[in-house]
Fold this protein.
Amino acid sequence: MTDVQIVPLELTHLSDVLALGHRVYDVKAMPYTSWSLSSVAAHWDAQPDACWVALDGQGLLGFVLGSLSYDEREDWGYLEWIALEERARGRGVASALVERCCAALYAAGAVRIITDVEGSNAASAAMMRRNGFTEAVTVTLFVRPAPGDHPAATPHPAHDPARTRLRRAARTTPRT
């Protein structure tokens, strides 16, 4: 990992972060999840020190976005988004991003940090375990579509409760 730099997320990285997220996230796997500019902006605005990118000579390798507060727990950090380019996998890049994000969240007052991994993503689950995370709660999302409704035909993304929490946190987080 000697040619890799882990640096704070900056405006110059935004386009590449958005593009990578669009390539790697399957928002159909978790219908309450959405990936958009507002997803990045809410984290970056609420907790900029928990938002990091990994770079090499070819450009963006990956990113992580975290925030302080999860649901009603203002003392829990939330590592919500992490993504890597194929060429970064197996090089310790994800672990380096996780460590930077977690260090920032602990420094901001988190007593616990949570994350969620889609059930079929064994590689991400294993990486989180290697980085000190343990399974604490298992939730199965049950979905019942409206009669005659086809999920692919829904024109608007589902409401994102995480984005709502982050917007609330951004409005109440004092800026220094």
User: Anything to note?
Assistant: DSSP finds five helices and five strands in the chain.
